[in-house]
Every structure is written in structure tokens, then in C-alpha cells.
Amino acid sequence: MSRKLSLLVLALLLMGLTGGRSGTASAASNNQAGSPQTWTVLVGGQGEIEQTEHGPAGAWQFMKFYPNRITVNAGDTIVWKLNAAEIHNVIFPPPGQNYVPFVTPQGGPPPELVVNPLGVVSTGGPTYDGSAAASSGSISMAPPGVQEYRLTFTKAGSFNYLCSIHSTQLPNGQVEGMLGNVTVQTAGTAYPRTQAQIDAEAQAAIAADAQTALGAEAQAKQVAPPEAGPNGAMIYHGNMGYDFGDFGYMRFSPTDFTIHVGDTIEWMQTSAVTPHTLTLLSGGKEPDLVMVTPQAAGPPKFTINPQILAPAGGASYNGTGFYSSGFINGTQDPAPGPRTYHLTFTKAGTYEYVCMLHDTLGMTGHVTVLGAGSMPGMPRTGYGDVLPVVAGWSALMLLLAGLTLRRRAARRAQG
Q1: SS3 for 259?
Q2: According to the model, what pLDDT value does residue 143 have?
Q3: In this structure, what DSSP letter does residue 304 have?
Q4: Segments in 236-293 forming alpha helices (H)
Q5: Computed over its alpha carbons, how large is the radius of gyration of the chain?
Q6: What is the spatial distance between Cα 72 and Cα 145, in angstroms, rounded to a whole number?
Q7: Are strands 316-317 and 323-324 parallel, antiparallel or unpaired?
Q8: What angle do CA 69, 71, 73 make, to 5 degrees?
Q9: 168 in Cβ contact with 273 (< 8 Å)
Q10: How far apart are the first and last CA of the chain?
């Protein structure tokens, strides 16, 4: 998601809606038998961490809890600590439910995407016995976002929880995604693991996940080669993110292009479940992701901004105006809509583009558009002018090879 959701946290704090369930207390040592303990669970993970405009963020985001299963005693407290730049939440669904959607379509057409308050507003109080829903609300690294969630368990039982942003319910009712479980034993029962063991296992799992993600990066960056377009122009291709299982690659591939006036870039959605946008702001203000409407009773109404959902601008870009693909849903998402976005660039210049859902994670790029008659330079991170440069080097190598052959022929004639 984006930094706009974290701004909601500030508004909610000012309205007194978030309660007091975040904190900075560290986990207690687990060597006091019989006394209530405090445990730590990490929320999310990341790999290939880079410094972005908004702080350190991993190109790869891991949609997991570390550990995803933990056993504690009645009276113990768990602190969920955010461990990645991606936004998350921790939700124990209402009794009798196993899933809480993050957004629900309402009305229309086109329908509003209404955000479930449990996804953004801390709910349920500091203790939990399974009789009502409990939620951290949004957890975000961006200040003033809440980065920890504390909950004390007062009753024995097995309790499932999830991050509603990164989970989904299949047609058969099965829930998949970022899931966790807390088993609560009666007070005084021996613990199966210490916090030190849990921490070691979590760090080992994150390291293994980073290696798994790195091994998939070549596939994530694989793009179709450029092809000839109309009137001597070229069509270049790029990817919007990539994901598999619990791993999300929050980058465009390639990040940067160098092309010429009249050329077209077609970006393809390559994430299975993660939506993205391809947006050029042209120096303008980025729209808020979520709109907040106060209600007469209860929490405000949160809706996804239609300006972010809908495409805007047209098919040709001259360096001005708001141009956007709108939501490009994942390739496995049954929702209708395009899975590609193409734009023809008609004016020389360098232009930034972003994913409005993941720009704070570093999902941004640039298109450098050269004049129609200009000589290509060395390409940037992308491959916009790789072919002309390679062709130039190939011609030079052929010339040198030809000169060498002629010299050898002359020597043989002299001999």
C-alpha cells in the first residue's frame, strides 16, 4: 500500500479512535516460571533493502508472520512488531468468522470500494478472550504510523488471525494468505519454546525467504524484447511487479527506459494477486489512497479514492497532466479489467512514473524521451536504447574484423 494509509492513523489518533494498544516495551525474558510473559512476533519481512525517498524498503516483501504459530499461557501478552516497509494489520475475526475482507464493493456501477474499519482502526481493547473481534488497525513504518500491537490473552483456546490486506477467501470458503495462530494454554503450563528460540527461528526463516526471493528475481525481470511499431517507431515492454506465494516484488522491470519521441511503452501486469498502478503525476500532487467520511455514529467511512481506481489521461503523453492506468488487478484476480497499460510519448524529456499503491516501497521509475533525430546514448537501468548501442558495437566489431582479415590476406600475398 502507500503512505496515504499511514496518514489515516494520525487522523484516527486525533479523533481518539485508535486506543492505547501500541507500545515500545520489549519482550520479557522467559525464565520466570508461572509469571505472565511477553512474547514477540514479527509482522512481515523483506529482502534487498534499499534506501528510498521514504526510508529503507525491501524490493521484496514477505507477507508472513514470524512465527505464524505461537503457544503462550493465559495471562501472557504478545507484541506484534512491524518488520517491513509494507503496511499490514493484525486482525482476530469476530466469533464464527474466519475471514475479514479489507475492502468490499458497494453500490454502483461503478461500485465504491469500502474499507472495513477493522483494517485501519484499532479495535477490541488491550485483552482478548475470543468473544469479540480484535484488531491492530493499520501498522505502518511511515510516521506517525503505529508499529507495534500488544494484546493480552485471558482465556485458553486456539485463535486464528490474519492480515486482511494480504489475505483472501476462495470461493470454497478457504482462506489463504498472511495467516497466523495463537494457542493459549492454561496459566502455569510449560512453554514449548523460549523467546530466544523463536527469535532465532524467525531470523533463519527470513534469511531463507530472502534467498528464495533472490532466486526468483531473474524471472521477475524477464520482459519481452522491443518490437517495431508504426511509422518507424518502437514498442518497448515492461513489467508491473511480480509475486508468487507469500513473496511480492515491488518494482517495475526495467525501472528506467530511454526511448525516442513517438515510441510506445507497454507495461504488463506480472503479479498474480497484487494490484498495481502505472501513474505519471507530471509534478502534481499524488491523490490520497483512502477518502475518510465522518459518520453520525461509529468510525468514519473509508473508501478507496476513485481517482486511483480509474484510468486517466488517454494513450499519448506530452509531459503534462495526470496519466494513470488505474487499478491493474493481478493476473489471477477474477475481477474484470485490463492487465496491461500502454502509453506513447510525444515530447522529449525525463518523466517519473510511480505505482500509487507501492511508491513508498520504491516502486517508481523514469522514462527518458530523446528527440526523434538525436543519437542514442548509453541506456539507463532499463534497455530503451540497448538495441541501437548493441548494433553500433556490432558494426564496429565487424569493421575491425574486416580490417584484420584484409591485413592477413595482404601478408599472405606478400609471402
Answers
A1: strand
A2: 63
A3: E
A4: none
A5: 26
A6: 27
A7: unpaired
A8: 150
A9: yes
A10: 75
Helix/strand/coil (H/E/C) assignment for every residue in 338-389: CCEEEEEECCCEEEEEECCCCHHHCCEEEEEEECCCCCCCCCCCCCCCHHHH
Q: Which residues contact 184 (CB under 8 A, 6 or more apart)?
A: 71, 72, 73, 74, 76, 153, 155, 156, 157, 158, 159
Question: Residue 378: how many CB atoms within 10 A of its CB?
Answer: 8
Q: For the segment 77-115, what is each residue's pLDDT rounded down to a tens digit? A: 999 999 999 999 999 999 999 999 999 999 878 889 999
DSSP result, 386-399: HHHHHHHHHHHHHH
Q: Measured between alpha carbons, how far is 40 from 394 in angstroms, rounded to an integer?
A: 58
Measured CA distances, 95 to 102, 134, 160 (Å): 17, 10, 11
**Which pLDDT tens digit goes with each residue over 6-31?**
434 334 433 334 333 443 333 334 44
pTM of the model: 0.82
Q: Decide: helix, strand or coil at residue 309.
A: helix
Length of the chain: 415
- Core vs surface per residue 323-359: b (16+ CB within 10 A) or e: bbbbbbbbeebeeeeeeebbbbbeeeeebebbbbbbb
Report residue 44: phi and psi, to 5°: 80, 165
Q: 109: Cβ–Cβ under 8 A, 6 or more apart, which residues?
A: none
Q: Which three cell numbers stand for residue 114?
A: 469500502
Report the C-alpha gap between 224 and 168 in whole angstroms.
31
